[in-house]
Design goal:
Elements (H helix, E strand, L loop, with lengths): L2 E7 L3 E8 L5 E8 L5 E2 L1 H14 L6 E8 L5 E3 L9 E2 L7 H10 L3 H8 L8 H11 L1 H6 L2 E3 L1 H9 L9 E3 H4 L5 E2 L4 E2 L1 H8 L7 E3 L6 E2 L6 E2 L3 E2 H8 L6 E6 L3 E5 L13 E4 L5 E7 L3 H11 L3 H10 L8 E3 L16 E3 L8 H25 L6 E5 L6 H11 L3 E4 L4 H15 L11 E5 L3 H18 L9
Length: about 475
């Protein structure tokens, strides 16, 4: 049996799966926590990776490994390869103001969409570079190379032998704000617009091109990719599939053969890990909406689902807009949440639970609508992530999304996608291997449920507009 390893180095933890390269069967796994916060010393990721690999039994018998990592995170290296400062993560919103500066300086939202397929927001790497330049000019001046979390971990596995050995892939590079999915090349003018000077950037590998080998072993290093592109690989998504991931953030993305350029900034025109494109809309508030509501009501997640099922569609007029930590879709980094329509008759735990689930799904449905409006096909939604395990979320998603919803058996789909990429790199074939994905259940929208869901979404849209005005284009 030939083994491959996949890594998910996410915001919260590092997860490792080791699978059979031919069938995808899980052989063993490991996990280690990451520190909390929106800025983290990258060394903590390396320590967690070593712990997770050890728990998974090591990689002495593994033929290839790939890293799937949280997107956008800013890792700055000096000329000697040392980390300049703690990495700023995707969910660090301090660069919201600099995003507006960059949009204006480059000629507006349309110019950005035409250049790199996306309009920069606080999460993007390029806006964090501008923040660094304005607030920590000495650190900006020391920065000789800029990379992303997955790039840095791949480089460390290879032995960190010189900055020119840094590599990345299309999927992760497309989230920086200075790489174009249209030309498959960096826009160094945009890098300099952010950082203030040029810097070494990782070489962008082809989808199954090896990055080298793990230091001191024959284990092949696959390119790795960003977490969303890895998840698409992990669930085996194809054209017409929309992946809806409910984790720390909420992500709606679709495999597409054509690039997108959305000047509204709602849809980011990312690339996939397979050579296609991955238009994507992201919300800052996802599974933690359920966490916070469960805490508020003093119940666990199972009881939260049961409570939500007891309340009617629309929660008798109660609407939750869950912008608890600002929001990215729409771009309102300083917004706060809103609970609207409170009455004596609906101020019950069941109605609050229902409003939380509906508010979470309405935010994701807005992202799905934005993809469809750009011509992206959405024949089926694949629901993954920790929040997808909620029975209430599963039951309501199809009607609110307006399409069938497929819920796979819970798994580590970012790590699985990375493992699949590792197997692909090992074979050198034109396409990744076909691994059979276990399905848990399928939900279809109903006429009655869809009618009620449309009313819920109309009410949500009206309350959404009562939140703080947009800080973006």
């Amino acid at each position: 049996m030939t083994l491959v390893a996949g890594v998910d180095s996410s915001t919260q933890s590092c997860k490792v799966v080791i699978r059979d390269a031919d069938s995808g069967a899980l052989v063993r796994s490991g996990r280690a926590a990451h520190p909390d916060g929106t800025e983290v010393d990258p060394e903590a990721w390396w320590t967690a990776l070593q712990s997770a690999l050890a728990e998974a039994g090591g990689i002495d018998d593994v033929a290839a490994i790939a890293i799937g990592g949280q997107q956008h995170g800013l890792v700055c290296l000096d000329a000697g390869g040392d980390v300049v400062r703690d990495a700023l993560l995707w969910n660090d919103t301090r660069s919201a103001g600099t995003a507006l500066e960059l949009i204006d300086e480059f000629g507006g939202p349309q110019a950005w969409a035409d250049a790199v397929g996306s309009v920069p927001v606080a999460s993007f790497t390029v806006t964090k570079l501008r923040w660094l330049r304005e607030h920590e000019p000495d650190n900006a001046a020391r920065t000789a190379a800029v990379c992303l979390p997955h790039d840095w971990l791949t480089w460390r596995l290879a032995g960190a032998a010189g900055l020119d050995a840094l590599t990345t892939d299309r999927g992760d590079a497309s989230g920086t704000g200075y790489w174009s999915p249209f030309t498959n090349d960096y826009r160094r003018d945009l890098l300099e617009l952010g950082l203030g000077h040029d810097a070494l950037l990782p070489r962008v590998l082809a989808p199954a091109e090896a990055a080298g080998t793990v230091l001191g072993t024959s284990t092949l290093l696959a390119p790795g990719t960003g977490d969303n592109a890895a998840a698409a690989l992990g669930v085996g998504a194809g054209p017409g599939d929309v992946i809806v991931s409910i984790g720390t953030s909420g992500v709606v993305c679709a495999v597409s053969s054509i690039p997108t350029a959305d000047p509204t900034g709602i849809v980011d025109g990312f690339a996939s890990a397979t050579g296609d494109f991955l238009p994507l809309a992201c919300t800052l508030n996802a599974a933690r909406v359920l966490d916070a509501t469960a805490t508020l009501l003093g119940v666990d997640h199972a009881e939260l689902s049961r409570l939500a099922a007891r309340a009617p569609a629309g929660a008798a007029g109660m609407t939750l807009v869950p912008y608890f930590e600002g929001e990215r879709t729409p771009n309102r980094p300083d917004a706060t949440g809103a609970l609207h329509g409170l009455r004596l008759a609906n101020l019950t735990p069941a109605h609050v639970a229902r409003a939380a689930v509906e508010g979470l799904l309405c935010g994701l449905a807005d992202g799905l609508d934005a993809l469809v409006q750009l011509g992206v096909s959405a024949r089926r939604a694949i629901l993954v992530g920790g929040g997808a395990r909620s029975g209430a979320v599963q039951a309501l998603a199809a009607d609110l999304f307006g399409c069938p919803v497929d819920v796979p058996v819970p798994g580590e789909y970012v790590a699985d996608g990375a493992a699949r990429q590792a197997a692909w790199t090992l074979t050198g074939s034109d396409w990744p291997p076909t691994w059979v994905l276990k399905r848990s259940s399928m939900f279809e929208p109903t006429h009655e449920g869809r009618s009620a869901a449309l009313a819920v979404r109309r009410r949500y849209a009206s309350v959404r507009e009562l939140t703080a005005p947009s800080a973006g284009p």
